Amino acid sequence: MPYKNLEEYNTKITEDIKERYKRIIEDLGEDTNRDGLLKTPERAAKAMQFLTQGYAQDPVEILTSAMFKESYNEMVIVKDIELYSLCEHHILPFFGKVHIAYIPNGYIVGLSKLPRIVDVFARRLQVQERLTEQILDCINDTLTPQGVAVVIEASHMCMMMRGVQKQNSITTTSGFRGQFEKIETRNEFLKLIGK
Ligand SMILES: [Zn+2]
């Protein structure tokens, strides 16, 4: 078997969360002995651990593992990175796209690492604003580029399914450091991502 996708869960934590989910489902008025729900508390416990695995991952280590000395000093853009996260106020998903740009300062980073650090921060309980800052600061502090820019566009289930029930609204957040604080550079980036 050349490839094995391993998902490992801490047995005790899984058991703890499972018992709590069982209580929650019962409190909501359901019968946890019903066929379709028998394994639901355990599945939900594992799903939540999967969706919050970012707490156990180190984004700095991911970036430094693939930094290469390079003299290229034009804008590097990775756009339309898929985002799936959980809002910390309601523990409901928010999802959308992340666009990242940086201007190297002697070092470039393996392009696949940018989506990976998005996941590390997204797989925690989040607010979109902090997520934007964390991605920005992580790249800025680790890669020390001439500039970095992050734009996130996301739909929040807590807005779509409950509360104001605004189903087509998209929340945009952005952050800019270094060269991107200059209007021309920022505009070039925004144009290149189609904004
Ligand atoms: Zn929310």
Automatic annotation (TrEMBL):
SUPFAM superfamilies: Tetrahydrobiopterin biosynthesis enzymes-like (SSF55620). The keyword Nucleotide-binding applies. Gene3D superfamilies: 1.10.286.10, 3.30.1130.10. It catalyses: GTP + H2O = 7,8-dihydroneopterin 3'-triphosphate + formate + H(+). GO terms for biological process: one-carbon metabolic process; tetrahydrobiopterin biosynthetic process; tetrahydrofolate biosynthetic process. Pathway: Cofactor biosynthesis; 7,8-dihydroneopterin triphosphate biosynthesis; 7,8-dihydroneopterin triphosphate from GTP: step 1/1. It comes from the Bacteria. Its EC number is 3.5.4.16. Zn(2+) binds at C87, H90, C158. The keyword Zinc applies. GO terms for cellular component: cytoplasm. Residues 17-193 form the GTP cyclohydrolase I domain. Keywords: GTP-binding, Hydrolase, Metal-binding, Nucleotide-binding, One-carbon metabolism, Zinc. One of its GO terms (molecular function) is zinc ion binding. InterPro entries: GTP-CH-I_C/QueF, GTP-CH-I_N, GTP_CycHdrlase_I, GTP_CycHdrlase_I_CS, GTP_CycHdrlase_I_dom. Belongs to the GTP cyclohydrolase I family. Homopolymer. This is GTP cyclohydrolase 1. It comes from Jejuia pallidilutea. The gene is folE.
